[in-house]
User: Fold this.
Amino acid sequence: MKASGQPRAWLLCALLALGVACNGDDGDDPDAGVAVDMATSGDAGLPEGGTTKPEGGTTKPDGGKPKPDKSVTPPKGKWVKIASGTTKNLHGVWGSSATDVWFVGAAATILRWDGLALKQVSHGVSSASSLYGVWGSSANDVWAVGEGGLVLRYDGAKWTKVTTVTAETVNAVWGSSATDIFAVGDKGVAMIYNGKAWYYTTSKSAKNLLSVWGGGWDDVWTVGEAGTLMHYKNKNWAVLKKGISASLNAVWGANAKDVWVVGGAGETMHYNGTTWTRISAGKDSHLAAVWGSKAGPVWAVGTSGTSASYSGAIRHNAGGSWAKVSSPTKEALTAVWGASASQIWITGYAGTVLTYKP
Assistant:
């Protein structure tokens, strides 16, 4: 999708002045600065070409306008920088515990937090390839994905390169178990690992898919450019139309009935198991990632501002609305993950690593 070391597509779009189109490789407008009325299409919430609502639910009939970002009290804790030992852009973070956290990024960078310090991990893969996503089923089974179909696997001792079925960039990976793992990427690539090998699934989209998360092996969501939102159910992908033109950059859920999506131009959505509701995070917010603890608040990160003046953006949602939280960096923020409500990590450009101090 992009050469090593270049900004990812969502950030290129985010840094354009609001209201100016950002054209992707496919000629669409994935991150326009103006939210599109959700109610403009009579088949909102329907799969493409369908007349029956998919099991992904419907869109709340609120006149098509996202709810405003009401004023809420920010958390009392603060975010602080951690020395990463690298200036490479970091794109992904995941851990098996608070003392075992993996970070991946440009030039095949892999870092590991052992509870005391971040250390760079050697793996022997060409530094020309960037890694964009990381996830594991356990401390001894971790996957990293990236440019040119690159997929790496950690077995508790070493990282090795794994053969897959695509040469397209793979942007994200998530699984319900060690034998049921989803990966999504450019040009609609969607793959599943069954414990033995990777195989294609038909995603019904040619858009770049940027994130994947599921409430179970047969209840999986993926999002991508130009407002792409798809749901995997009964071994089949359904495309949901939400009337959104901005790029949807990340999806995460506490469970199958508590799912969040974030994207460009302040677009965020929440799913309660039946209904999708749009909640604005502010049109100057271009959010790249979202995560929350099952018993706590939700965090989203990205950038805010315009191409002339932008900074790393952190948003906090503890009661249905988003609050701005002070960021200790001007760098774009790309990923967020936590072991608990008080043990959370954020990654960003130029080797940025932040951790939360409650």
